[in-house]
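Fold it.
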Amino acid sequence: MILDTQIQKALDCRADFPVLSATVYDKGYVYLDNGATTQKPRAVIDMMTDFYTQRYATVHRGVYLHSAEATADCDAVRTQVARFIGAAHDDEIVFTKGTTESINLVASTYGQHLLPAGKGILITAMEHHANLVPWQMLCAQKGIPFRVCPIDDNGTLDMATFATLMTPDIGVVAVTHVSNALGTINPVKEITRLAHAQGAKVLLDGAQAVGHTSVNVHDLDCDFYCFSGHKLYGPTGIGVLYGKRALLASMPPYQFGGDMIESVSFEKTTFAKPPARFEAGTPPIVETLGLGAAITYVQSIGFDFIASYETALLDLATAALKARFPEVRIIGESPKKASVLSFVFPEIHPHDVGSILDSEGIAVRVGHHCAQPVMKRYGVPATVRATFSFYNTPEDVVRLMDGLQTVKDLIL
């Protein structure tokens, strides 16, 4: 049940996002593609605009006022991110372009150079390609085991099989915290415990988690945690890699260039300590500040509200879909699930559904969602995916259902 007070808070939040007041084909905009990227609140837009127009400067080594201020502001965001995810130290936070680069960084450094000889990788059958392909390529290059833990018909990870696959010859377990295609919330704390018992390191893909629930990497005890700013109501081009301090200190550089060195001569180059070691080149300064503003904004909303309201909204949409369109097949019905509703009509291609919904002013995602093995597991080429945020409302659910009725009337 969604309370009137929750709906009012959602409407208040919605007013913070300028694009949500737009019209599409002369209809009010219903944005249900939050799993791909979230919209940006005015606080983020204003922060970035102000920096560009009033005080733009690059960071590090500048002795003039705006450069010094920019450096201090970016350092403050690093501290903010560390507190946001419960990291013990600021230098455990590495800024990257996004989740994809964070995962590739770990695979290319720890995986290539520090993974114990002969030890392999264990992932799950619900991984986004970004948390599958880098590990698959690593295993092919090194000739080491590559194992995949299956999922059941509901989209729940088979933990009994995971325990049997989690043997001492696995060196890294790479698992999504929340599935982008199914919405499944994985038992990542238990996964980490089982992996550590066998001596393996754990990387968690948190791209779909950090905007929906509070994350504490200290409590999870994971070795690496990755997420993107643009799925957290911040800008694109900025992401985070959390790594335990000792692990980051042991890893070689990922790229070479400015700002990641300690000293350079024609005879020898030595490298800076983390996180600078992994942040070659001019960083995404404005995007970093935008990420800080996004975190401040989300924390002002509160994850207790976000989690409970989005769950209630998902339950409402799921029940409405089943009641009005009993022929529809929902892909992913794990008991522990985030606000992802993926489904297929038996006789209508998802791309047709998406196109007609667009004409009704409703934005959803259609396709394989960069999770082709998931589609193969359920025997479908693609799904329609509606993903909800705290700025969506029950009226958006009504609009979605009415839009799907239009789809059905036009095609069948």
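The chain is about 40% helix and 15% strand.
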